Amino acid sequence: MSSGASLIPLVVTILGLGVTAQVLADRLEIPSVLFLILAGIAVGPEGLDIVSLESFGGPGPLSGIVGLSVAIIVFEGAFHLKLSKLRQTPREAFRLVTIGAGITLLGTALAVRFALDASWTLSFLVGSLLVATGPTVVTPILNVVPVRDRVGAALETEGIVNDVMAAIMAVAVFEVLTSTGTGLNLVIESFLTRLGIGVFVGGLSAGVLWYLLAHVDLSPSNAVRNTRLIVLVGAISTYGIADALATEAGIAAVATAGILLGNTDLPYEDEIEAFKGDITLIVLSFVFISLATLLSFDDLLSLGVGGLLVVVVVVVVIRPLAVLLSTFGDRFSFRERLFMSAVGPRGIIPASVATLFALELRGSNPEAATILVGTVFLVILTTVVFEGGFARHIAQALNVLPMRVIIVGGGRVGRGLAERLEDRGENVIIVDNDQQQVEQARNAGFTAHFGDGTDTDVLRSAGVGNAKIVAAATGDDDANLLVAQLTQSKFDVETVLARVNTPGNAEAFEELGVRAISADDSIAQSMDNAIERPALSEWMSELGRAGDVQEIEVTAETLVGTSISDLDGELPDGVLVALVSRDGESQIPEPEWTLQHGDHLTFVGRRDAVHRALEQCHPDLHADTA
Predict the structure, then answer these.
(1) Cβ(427)–Cβ(402) below 8 Å
(2) Which of 59, 461, 464, 588 gets the highest tally of CB atoms within 10 A of its CB?
(3) pLDDT at 4
(4) Looking at residue 620, what is its pLDDT?
């Protein structure tokens, strides 16, 4: 009874500090990891001495608690990794977790070896841990820095996959450090064995959980609660089974299960995500504060100039080199690649695994323990402070924050418009005051904000200050008119559109200077096209699925003075110039038409070809849309 009572203030202290740290982080738009580490140091033996290793009963119990907590965090992050996002950058994401990870591992190991005079095995142990970035630090950054989806998807994928790889690789290298194994052969065998076991157990577990959730009656009165509990217990069981078969295979297992389940059609998916998010915040607070209590400033200071040199090399040389070599091609602009190079903070996996390994090494090899935990935490603190804390400033300096398109109204019309715009690469935000519509939009993969679109505060929170288009697409003409008027009068938005549901109201919209789109007129025009121009109607439908029509201003100096016939020979295959506009007048271009700076061209063709043509005519397209 007394031991149980003594745990109460411990748990209350950690959770209280965790909540405070999360609130401060949200307010300052900084990853909470920094505040959690500082809170842990404050209550640890070097601070108020409230929490220590003995508080948890020693290294064994703490290791079990941390392992289970990390499993929940990894599962939650993997559950949010949608394959629809990953398809935007499949090659680059694959390179980041292969080429990029390899460069980081080797580069960090070399830096530790020569800057700190560590053994090769210890150097590769540190290098394997610092491969990981992780969703616990990357996701909070992306929540406050609205970069393009393809950039966010690549960073999130890198974080989740490398978390798993780093944990397994570190265990394999640690076995070499603490045993008389055969070196490289042991590392490779251990890594592949753990990864294989983890993937197999995770896939099997995901299949069982999907069947239970999709085909078993969970009691209608308590279906939501039962669904959430099954997922939580399933994640914990997946970790336990895989970890019992091979140490750290549980991390790979929960990551595999999370990715598979997150990309299936589960009932109550929104409720599952909300529940997991709350649980993750609790365990994240507990893990970081608990580990930070074991951190000694002496470990950091003992590294001296060598430790600082390792940090500089990792941040300034290795990270940019890994990203730039992994993201070559036309998918990302150079400025986006620089942003990704500057944002690679380390998180939960390096902190937890390094601390637990250091506890095991303190008795047999205290110098190695000091280098391990000191280097890892020094990199974590530095990258979280500078890369996490200044991420928005870095994005603004590099001009990689895309202009937003805000659609007020998440019904069929709003979602249909959002789908078309996102296919063209726009950064779309849906705003709706109906929670069900918001959930449907989110389930469809859109970013959606809950709130009244006629409220200026709601529009501001959705990012109207950085919007180039606002479309009022609700089923209420009064609401659409008010949204359009507010946007025009209070915010500097380039294009404002409003849906008109009742044809008789179109004139009122136009009198107020609002560009109105009548639903009835659009339907009538489409039906007329289907009757009188069936080939054109079918072509337009097919164009909406696989093609694109885009207008762009000619700014490329190399094209000024070029004729349309010459331009046709330079454009990508599958794209045509449909219209050319000058001084507000548009016409079908003649072959001898000579381009001038400021002309507007309308391209028609395959979506990817059209996008390449846009960049060819307007080289600063990414900067202008940021």
Answers:
(1) yes
(2) 464
(3) 44
(4) 62
Contact at 8 Å (CB) between 555 and 597?
A: yes
Check whether domain 59-398 has CATH 1.20.1530.20, yes or no: yes
**Residue 543 in 3-state DSSP?**
helix
Q: Which of 3.40.50.1240, 3.30.70.1450, 3.90.780.10, 3.40.50.2300 is the CATH number of 547-617?
A: 3.30.70.1450
> How far apart are the C-alpha atoms of 572 and 488, rounded to whole Å?
38
pLDDT at 206 over 60: yes
Model pLDDT, residue 623: 47
Higher pLDDT among residues 519 and 262, named by residue: 262
Pick the CATH number of 404-523 from 3.20.20.70, 3.40.50.720, 3.30.420.40, 3.30.365.10: 3.40.50.720
Q: Determine the Cα–Cα distance for residues 446 and 431; give it in Å rounded to an integer.
A: 11
Most confidently modeled of 61-75, 509-523, 585-599? 585-599
b/e code 476-509 from CB counts within 10 Å (16+ = b):
ebebbbbbbbbbbeebebeebbbbbbeeebbeeb
What per-residue confidence (pLDDT) applies to 423? Answer: 67
Q: Which one, of 606, 561, 559, 552, lies nearest residue 579 by Cα?
A: 552
Rounded Cα gap, residues 551 and 542, in angstroms: 19
What's the pLDDT tens digit per position in 92-112?
888 998 999 999 999 999 999
The total number of residues written for the chain in this structure? 626
**CA-wise closest residue to 256 among 74, 89, 66:** 74
3-state secondary structure 201-269: HHHHHHHHHHHHHHHCCCCHHHHHHHHHHHHHHHHHHHHHHHHHHCCCHHHHHHHHHHHHHHCCCCCCH
Q: Rounded CA gap, 76 and 318, in Å?
A: 29
φ, ψ for residue 133, nearest 5 deg: -100, -70
Q: Of residues 503 and 563, which shows the higher confidence score?
A: 563
SS3 389: coil
Answer for the pair 554, 601: CB distance below 8 angstroms, yes or no: yes
Domain borders along the chain are: 59-398, 404-523, 547-617
Report whether pLDDT(496) > 80: yes
Q: What is the 3-state secondary structure (H, E, C) of 550-590?
A: EEEECCCHHHCCCEHHHHHHHCCCCEEEEEEEECCEEECCC
Q: Rounded mean pLDDT of the chain?
A: 80
- Are 205 and 253 within 8 A, CB to CB? yes
CB atoms within 10 A of CB 233: 11
The residue assigned the tokens 């762009």 is 552
Share of the chain above pLDDT 90, in %: 12
Name beta bridge partners: 553: 600
How far is CA 56 from each of CA 4, 53, 59, 290, 292, rounded to the nearest angstrom?
Answer: 11, 6, 8, 9, 13
0.70 surpassed by pTM: no
Q: How far, in Å, CA of 323 to CA of 572, rounded?
A: 28
What is the distance between the terminal CA atoms of the chain, rounded to a whole angstrom? Answer: 60
Alpha carbons 315 and 121: distance in angstroms, whole number: 22
The pLDDT tens digits for 123-145 are 999 999 999 887 777 877 887 78
